[in-house]
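Sample intake — Sucrase-isomaltase, intestinal
Collected from: Sipha flava
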Amino acid sequence: YAIDTQFLWGSALLISPVLKENQVDLDLYLPNDIWYDYYSKYMRVSNGSIFTVNAPKDTIPLAIRGGYILPIQDPATTTTSSRKNPFGLLVAPDKNKEAFGYLFWDDGNSLNVWENGFYNEIHFKLYNTTLSNKIITNNYSDETIILQHITIMGIQNEPNNILVNGNIHNNFFYNTTEKALYFSALDLDLNMFFNISWTEISNN
């Protein structure tokens, strides 16, 4: 707890800003867990160790803790505009190939939405080679929430037989260097149940 040059945003995102002029690498402390580099998707297994990472001038070192699913959305010049952009999911499996996350969504303006139940709460779950969602609360219907792309890190073997809601989905890419699986053109309504599954080709 003596480290004051890094901080967690929530439980999953570790932010380690560069604080010295002209510094291009950084000694990064990672707590005991699996962590993924936000940019390279490289997986590190830490027992509470220090790692040296690249820190180019145009990036802030970010690490994502295994076991979490982070909803992401492309930015825009205003909050009103950004709310219209589709969502993505950034999935960081833990050692058991599981991850969990959720999205809380309201109109962005009203007061007491929690007390009045005027919001949507959507949970996401990765279990081995299946990613799905569960609608917990669905009381805000003024906007359609679209899931367009997903990145799943830590996929050690090449995937095949990609199914989205039981249908073959060909808009995916597996990066063998990053060990990451990318889905695009999903066009899924997050207020409706979805199920994405695949199998992995064994290297044995």
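Post-analysis note: The radius of gyration is 18 Å.
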